[in-house]
């Protein structure tokens, strides 16, 4: 039987808490905001702007759960890690990151270029030299180096990869390779979960994968089919990569 629609219940604005009263909201302030503004001109390739922003949020969440990871290294590194794609011929990017690609030189170039860009940006804002050296070392190897240099590097690597399993990540990656949502999820998960370096990241990945996977289950499809989709339902489906085609191996 069709579900009976619920009448909307307008809520008084005063019942919604202010942003600074809510736990776990993330925003860029101070130095990170300045780094973001300077990095942004280099991030208008391959959806790296939103990718880096969402990865920043994931890194912020992981910081509190990974002992030894330092915000002053992790957060600038995650904002700057993919700036080097700006120096790569756009026609080479997707072939280089596609499953089965053997173009390691292109992947490596975006790391070395990104490290140089990060060094310039951090020097321009007067960032401490010791932290700058740690940040550039992370950027220079964040994809091709499988092991982590330290806890900071592990958090950056894991936040970078976790983005793939977010709604924006799945939608973006699916569009790159013209894959529908469910094959995109399988492809992303097969190349992501076992490469995560920290237990907190694996917990986040498991939660994101469970939600996305159940969204494609026969049970969920049956529930979606029993009543017409509302505008919000449709938007939510698109966020999960519905009918979209993926980025591979390197987030």
- Biggest sheet, open or closed, and with what strands and sense? none
Cα end-to-end separation: 43 Å
Radius of gyration using CA atoms only: 20 Å
Mean residue pLDDT:
89
The count of β-strands is 0
How much beta, percentage-wise? under 5%
Structural category is: mainly alpha
Count of discrete alpha- or pi-helical segments spanning 4 or more residues:
12
* Helical content class: 55-70%
What is the string of SSEs from the N terminus onward? Answer: HHHHHHHHHHHH
Low-pLDDT stretches: 228-249
Coarse shape: globular
Description:
Helix content is 57%, strand content 0%. The protein contains twelve helices and no strands. It is globular, with a radius of gyration of 20 Å. The N and C termini lie far apart (43 Å).
Q: In terms of topology, how is this protein built?
A:
Elements: H1 30-39, H2 48-63, H3 71-80, H4 90-97, H5 104-124, H6 129-139, H7 151-162, H8 167-177, H9 181-190, H10 199-215, H11 218-225, H12 231-239
Could you give a quick summary of the protein structure above?
Helices cover 57% and strands 0% of the residues. With 251 residues, it is mostly helical.
């Amino acid at each position: 039987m069709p579900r009976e629609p619920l009448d909307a219940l307008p809520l008084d604005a005063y019942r919604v808490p202010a942003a600074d009263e809510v736990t776990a909201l993330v925003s860029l302030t101070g130095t990170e905001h300045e780094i973001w503004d300077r990095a942004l001109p280099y991030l208008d390739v391959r959806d790296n702007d939103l990718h880096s922003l969402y990865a920043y949020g994931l890194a912020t969440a992981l910081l509190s759960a990974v002992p030894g990871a330092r915000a002053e290294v992790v957060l600038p590194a995650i904002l700057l890690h993919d700036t080097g794609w700006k120096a790569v011929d756009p026609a080479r990017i997707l072939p280089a990151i596609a499953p089965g690609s053997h173009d390691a030189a292109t992947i490596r170039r975006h790391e070395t270029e990104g490290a140089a860009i990060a060094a310039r940006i951090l020097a321009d804002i007067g960032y401490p030299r010791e932290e700058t050296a740690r940040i550039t070392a992370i950027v220079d190897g964040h994809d091709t180096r499988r092991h982590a240099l330290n806890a900071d590097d592990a958090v950056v690597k894991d936040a970078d990869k976790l983005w793939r399993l977010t709604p924006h990540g799945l939608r973006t990656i699916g569009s790159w390779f013209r894959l529908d949502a469910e094959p995109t999820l399988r492809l992303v998960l097969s190349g992501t979960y076992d490469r995560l370096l920290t237990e907190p990241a694996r917990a986040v990945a498991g939660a994101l994968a469970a939600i996305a996977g159940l969204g494609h289950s026969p049970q969920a499809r049956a529930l979606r089919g029993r009543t017409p989709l509302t505008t919000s339902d449709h938007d939510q489906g698109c966020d999960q990569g519905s009918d979209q085609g993926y980025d591979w191996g390197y987030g």
